[in-house]
Write a structure and sequence with these properties.
By secondary structure, the protein is mainly alpha-helical. It has helices at about 1-25, 25-60, 70-100, 105-130. It is elongated and about 50 Å long.
Length: about 140
């Protein structure tokens, strides 16, 4: 459910909200979505991180094996962690540098970060699905 909310929310943002904001040159559309989605999106992301760590431990990928890339499952866990940290870095960057300066003329940097975070979310979803077949 949390993955559906996180990935689905970002897909909705990229496919529906972002084009409308760009066409209308109205940043309030993005800001409104961000405020509403944050209330359900951030708890979903938190749940995904916690359950991801628990699942990693279920597959015997403890913290000492993170970033070892030595087994197929460790490759998935490590790759997902890299993607998570990248996504978090982009979120901090957006909070500090993109959204405070957001205007109808400066919507492109926000659009790029939104698309990148969405692609990361989709990639993490696909990687998580690969655990069922034994990893990478």
């Amino acid at each position: 459910m949390a993955a559906s909310i996180w990935v689905g929310g970002h897909l909705f943002l990229v496919l529906r909200i972002l084009p409308e904001a760009i066409l209308q040159k109205d940043i309030s559309i993005l800001s409104d979505f961000r405020a509403k989605f944050g209330k359900i999106g951030m708890p979903s992301l938190f749940i995904l991180v916690v359950t991801g760590i628990l699942l990693a431990y279920d597959y015997d990928v403890t913290i000492t094996k993170w970033f070892s890339f030595s087994s197929p499952i460790e490759k998935i866990v490590s790759t997902k962690l890299v993607l998570l940290f990248t996504s978090l870095a982009l979120a901090v960057h957006s909070q500090k540098f993109i959204f405070p300066k957001l205007s109808s003329e400066r919507i492109l940097p926000a659009a790029i970060e939104i698309v990148v975070v969405t692609l990361i979310a989709i990639s993490m979803l696909i990687l998580g699905s690969l655990v069922r077949i034994g990893g990478l």
